[in-house]
């Protein structure tokens, strides 16, 4: 049984509690930590109440450095403001803990690379919470891709059409800031951008983009659109917005190959909407057999994947297998998003890899003046 600790007890941390509970045969939560101590208390109580078997209530801390020195947990999950991910992860890795970090990995390529290098030097796992990779429809499409059923991929598209209203940003003033968050692409759309680049071959070479701040009272963007060129010649298209009226609409991944077409929609890439392959008769998965019109959306856009992602990390620690979403893999979506920001700032296509950061956007806001 491995010990785990939670750093950051805000909105997303409830999914981490769920992940601990669903892997209770392998991990036990020893501590919750947040500068706002009431939030840490709340998550500690939530965990204890969710466990069917008798377990000790996790200890509660306001300072993660004290917690690390006191408990020396085997694993730490980080669910703080995005701008703190790198510093906290590096300290946890140096303290000997494996790290599971909420997205994004960091807000600069420099910080992301330091996290990855630290994990390698410490011989610890560094995993990123791109839990939508574990969605059942996404896994099914991935297996089809790896089996060559798409033929040659020509283009793909991710559409994230959600709503984050002014009250969402008012609840946590760090949201939408360049220092601690970034905008819609970095926060809400990063999962979909990861799925797109993962399916298209993880080898983006050029990005051209525009972003806008249409409605929300934030520093960063609430809308973005980009064209991503891949080394294979395939093209990816990104559309992301937090301005959909009145509520979340869909997150949809579309993949188009010479021998196959797949569209996965729903509120968070959780429903197969199109499934057409040239070998469908041979395989026995014609579209009418695959579609499930009665399938429901998850209760939130966070989906169900944290539990599977945590299990994957435990498997990697115990067997040495490669992580499904390592720091290196998680960095790829970050590179695309930062290239989008650089393209917006310069008005030019950006070749990858590029060294950029949200901080560089904060120095010049001319491209993100509010569009009325």
Mind explaining what this structure looks like?
The structure is a single chain. By secondary structure, the chain is an alpha/beta fold. Helix content is 35%, strand content 22%. The chain has 13 helices and 14 strands. The strands form 2 sheets. Strands 13-12-11-7-10-9-8-14 form an 8-stranded mixed β-sheet, with helices on one face. The radius of gyration is 20 Å and the shape is globular. The mean pLDDT is 95.
Give the C-alpha Rg: 20 Å
Number of strands: 14
The strands making up the biggest β-sheet line up spatially as 13-12-11-7-10-9-8-14
Going by CATH, the architecture of the largest domain would be 2-Layer Sandwich
Order of helices and strands: EHEHEHEHEHEHEHHEEEEEEHHHHEH
Number of domains: 2
In the predicted model, the low-confidence regions spanning at least 5 consecutive residues are none
Share of helical residues: 25-40%
Query: Termini, distance in Å?
Result: 56 Å
CATH class of the largest domain: Alpha Beta
How many helices? The count is 13
CATH topology of the largest domain: Dihydrodipicolinate Reductase, domain 2
% residues in beta strands: 15-25%
Instruction: Briefly note the structural class of the backbone.
Output: alpha/beta
Shape call:
globular
Query: Biggest sheet, open or closed, and with what strands and sense?
Result: 8 strands, mixed
Features of this protein?
alpha/beta, single chain, 22% strand, six-stranded parallel sheet, 372 residues, 2 domains, eight-stranded mixed sheet
């Amino acid at each position: 049984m491995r010990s785990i600790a939670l750093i950051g007890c805000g909105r997303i941390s409830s999914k981490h509690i769920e992940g601990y509970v669903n892997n209770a045969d392998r991990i036990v939560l020893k501590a919750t930590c947040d500068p706002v101590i009431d939030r840490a208390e709340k998550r500690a109580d939530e965990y204890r109440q969710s466990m069917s078997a008798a377990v000790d209530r996790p200890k509660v801390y306001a300072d993660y450095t004290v917690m690390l020195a006191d408990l020396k947990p085997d694993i730490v999950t980080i669910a703080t403001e995005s701008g703190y991910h790198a510093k906290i992860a590096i300290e946890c890795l140096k303290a000997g803990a494996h790290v599971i970090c909420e997205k994004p990995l960091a807000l600069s390529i420099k910080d992301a690379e330091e996290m990855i290098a630290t994990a390698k030097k410490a011989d610890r796992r560094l995993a990123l919470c791109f839990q939508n990779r574990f969605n059942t429809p996404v896994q099914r499409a991935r297996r089809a891709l790896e089996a060559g059923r798409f033929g040659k991929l020509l283009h793909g598209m991710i559409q994230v059409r959600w709503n984050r209203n002014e009250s969402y940003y008012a609840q946590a003033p760090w949201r939408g800031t360049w220092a601690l968050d970034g905008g819609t692409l970095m926060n809400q759309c990063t999962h979909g951008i990861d799925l797109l680049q993962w399916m298209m071959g993880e080898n983006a070479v050029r990005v051209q983009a525009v972003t806008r701040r249409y409605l929300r009272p934030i520093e960063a963007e609430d809308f973005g659109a980009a064209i991503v060129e891949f080394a294979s010649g395939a093209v990816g298209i990104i559309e992301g917005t937090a301005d959909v009226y009145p509520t979340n609409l869909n997150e949809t991944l579309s993949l188009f190959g010479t021998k196959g077409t797949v569209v996965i929609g729903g509120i968070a890439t959780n429903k197969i909407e199109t499934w057409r392959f040239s070998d469908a008769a041979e395989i026995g998965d014609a579209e009418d057999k695959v579609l499930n019109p009665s399938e429901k959306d998850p209760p939130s856009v966070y989906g169900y994947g944290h539990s599977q992602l945590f299990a994957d990390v435990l498997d990697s620690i115990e067997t040495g297998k490669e992580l499904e979403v390592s720091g290196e893999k998680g960095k790829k979506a970050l590179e695309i998003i930062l290239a989008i920001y650089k393209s917006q700032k310069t008005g030019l296509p950006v070749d990858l890899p590029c060294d950029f950061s949200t901080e560089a956007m904060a120095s010049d806001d001319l491209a993100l003046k509010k569009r009325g």
